[in-house]
Specification:
Layout: E1 3-14, E2 17-28, E3 32-36, H1 43-50, E4 58-63, E5 66-67, H2 72-78, E6 79-82, H3 94-104, H4 109-122, H5 138-150, E7 156-160, H6 168-185, E8 188-192, H7 196-199, E9 204-209, E10 212-217, H8 219-226, E11 230-235, H9 238-247, E12 252-255, E13 258-262, H10 266-275, E14 280-286, H11 290-298
Parallel strand pairs: 3-8, 3-9, 6-7, 7-8
Antiparallel strand pairs: 1-2, 1-4, 4-5, 9-10, 11-13, 11-14, 12-13
Helix pairs in contact: 4-5, 8-11
Bound molecules: adenosine-5'-triphosphate.
């Protein structure tokens, strides 16, 4: 797959303050890419620069090979943007909002109807098109924003926290639309999120902290590198279990009523379990979570206040 977003040695300073410090990464065409980081890490600065809103200090940022600093109009034609704060006009209908966007993008009048039909079908809002935006639920508004972000048929869609503030069911729906766009339309999705379980659905993740990219890989590879599986074991005779764990050199922590045991060396663990068949009363193996990855890499939790 070819890279559709290429960022090389990008630095952004606000006065003397370095907000983004010499970062480089690429995003493959047709992939879903998550950009994560704690507060103030440099996410918005990077997205806004990619979307031609901010000027870079140095480096090269290309979308479909077009330079975001010198080919702004071409880049804008290639991207759709859905930011956190709604910019829909709540006094207008869904249809009117979309039409206004078509004017903004100089979409030929004879194509407007077909495009509206296409994007509203994608987000399941075709039958609601005459409704006033002000009367819609938060989830529906977000879907209108996604439809609007797509009406000029961009190759890349930027979504800044597309599901923040929505209930779990609506979040799941928004994700259905996002993955549909990727699968059926080969649209590249570049998103930020605070929800770790959402980051795990993405093809690639870059974690930015203090203006630097500190990790960039698939969720699977990051989990493999930065987390350990753990076994939670209850035993009748704890001293007996403890002696065997020590003998087999399995790291463990004694908690109230159970043992938390390193489950990376599965053969050693199985050996202990088979020897302790009559002693063990309960066992559960837990995989590392993406939250563990984030904490391991950044030393912080991602903010959950959203
Ligand atoms: N206009 C500005 N002038 C000075 N400093 C700024 C400006 N905009 C952002 N910064 C600083 O640059 C750093 C990166 O900010 P940025 O908004 O890109 O982070 P972020 O990762 O998007 O954070 P958040 O998750 O809180 O939105 C922060 O320390 C911020 O205070």
């Amino acid at each position: 797959m070819r890279p559709i977003i290429e960022v090389k040695n990008f630095t952004k300073k606000y006065g003397d303050f370095i907000a983004v410090d010499d970062i480089s990464f690429t995003v493959e065409e047709g992939s879903v890419f998550a950009f994560l980081g704690p507060n103030g890490a440099g996410k918005s600065t990077t997205i806004n620069t990619l979307c031609t809103i901010f000027e870079k200090t140095s480096g090269t940022l290309l979308i479909e090979g077009k330079d975001v600093s010198t080919q702004k109009d071409e880049v804008r034609a290639s991207i759709g943007v859905v930011f956190q704060d709604s910019t829909l006009d709540s006094k207008m209908t869904i249809e009117e909002n979309l039409k206004m966007h078509c004017v903004f993008y100089n979409i030929p009048k004879n194509e407007v109807e077909e495009r509206m039909h296409f994007v509203l079908t994608l987000v399941d809002l075709l039958n609601e098109r005459k409704k006033l935006v002000g009367a819609l639920s938060g989830g529906m508004k977000r879907r209108v924003e996604i439809a609007r972000g797509l009406i000029h048929y961009p190759k890349v869609l930027f979504l800044d926290e597309p599901t923040t503030g929505l209930d779990p069911q609506t979040r799941a729906h928004i994700w259905e639309y996002i993955l549909k766009l990727q699968k059926e339309r080969n649209i590249t999705i570049f998103l930020t999120t605070h929800y770790m379980e959402e980051a795990e659905i993405c093809n690639k993740i870059a974690i930015i902290d203090g203006g630097k990219i500190v990790a960039h890989d698939t969720p699977y590879a990051l989990k493999k590198e930065f987390t350990k599986d753990k076994a939670y074991i209850n035993a009748k005779n704890e001293a007996e279990l403890e002696t065997l764990l020590e003998k087999h050199k399995l790291e463990f922590v004694k908690k109230k009523g159970y043992y938390k045991v390193d489950a990376e060396n599965i053969h050693q663990l199985l050996q202990v379990l088979s020897l302790q068949k009559d002693n063990i009363t309960d066992i559960e193996i837990k995989k590392g979570t993406f939250n563990d990855v984030f904490i391991e890499i950044t030393g912080k939790t991602i903010r959950e206040d959203a």
